[in-house]
Amino acid sequence: MNTIVSPSLLSADFLHLEKEIEMINNSKAQWLHIDVMDGVFVPNLSFGFPILEAIRPIIKKPLDVHLMIVEPMKFVDQLAALDVDTMNIHYEVSPHLHRSLTAIRKAGMKAAVTLNPHTPVCLVEDVLEELDMVLLMSVNPGFGGQKFIDHTLEKVAKLRNMIDKRGLKTLIEVDGGVNATTGAKLVAAGADALVAGSYVFGSEDPQQAIEGLYNLKR
Question: Could you point out which of 6, 94, 117, 137 has its C-alpha 20 to 30 Å from the C-alpha of 176?
């Protein structure tokens, strides 16, 4: 199976956003990754519903929405109304994780949870059956273009073992510092999906960069 590639809109050229969306539509990317930041949970602001509403009519790929915010469950209905495919919330701001995942699925979206670099994968062991995906941050969230944290490879392997032992179909996604080299290592360790921002949008040939990640196989 080819690797799922989810380019991060955070690194796109917002002056020419329609052109960037067209490139994604014509590429091997399976999803479009949307990073929503509130300046509280992470030290940065990104974009919110006006951008999502603007691109929704023209994007042909499923939306992979990553909420780096302190109260993600306030926006379940709004995201569902925009036909978002996957709603991704952080473990670190989810004291009632099982309830939250149930609500996301009830709204018709796939349920995913993100773990920061310092958060061990064992903490999602009791909700794996409720998860469509786990996103492992391989940089500290909040900014693009950061250096890949090598320990992520060990976390991917541990999580892959947890999932496979139970015979689950839960996907493993990784976000941060992804390029051809780190992407190959992550896929070899057991990752299913790769989020790539600056590596894709900063490339001379973004579609070729996407295809290179897409062709990585375990």
Answer: 94
